[in-house]
Amino acid sequence: xxxxxxxxxxxxxxxxxxxxxxxxxxxxxxxxxxxxxxxxxxxxxxxxxxxxxxxxxxxxxxxxxxxxxxxxxxxxxxxxxxxxxxxxxxxxxxxxxxxxxxxxxxxxxxxxxxxxxxxxxxxxxxxxxxxxxxxxxxxxxxxxxxxxxxxxxxxxxxxxxxxxxxxxxxxxxxxxxxxxxxxxxxxxxxxxxxxxxxxxxxxxxxxxxxxxxxxxxxxxxxxxxxxxxxxxxxxxxxxxxxxxxxxxxxxxxxxxxxxxxxxxxxxxxxx
Length: 271
Hints:
60% helix
């Protein structure tokens, strides 16, 4: 019997999926070195040829890279190769931030609900770590983009719903793009980054308390805040700073395209 829940059938695919998921969740981060083939073989109790097959597939997808004489290193999932129609929507400018946020509203409110019911202690710990990392990034004068993306990807995995996970993995490019653009605009008023941090903490707290209704509501409020902020056309005409060091003196305008603060009631938690 193979330990760590790996099934005898298609072990190379099981190893590939495990490492891929660790990359998407941010447990393995861009620039970090992957353990050697021998070490991975010992840890997962599978043969080195099995590890080799999994590594080859990860390299083909651009999730990891071999550096001659140095080892194997993790790449940014945003740069992963493969045909992705959602990525093409970004390239061709066919997806607006509002489009993305409306889809996220549907997906991530349900994700927060499911995570409150199904998340493990390890999932909660990972979510809390990403929130702490976001706080540290903001304190260092950065935007916390990767930390924010990792939080939302970890939330998807915490639902234990493979369709939810698949959708979020395919949305990764759009998620990264949307969060990056949102945070750049939000930095026009730096206190907004603290507001975003508090909103993430509330989602995390509700999940830790196993309160699906509060988790849904916290996520809805978070995304509603982003929609109301980002869809203010007058604000979008202003030049956002290139980074945290840019001018932050612009005053926000009040949006006339706000999203309703009402939400549908959650009649029954998902089984």
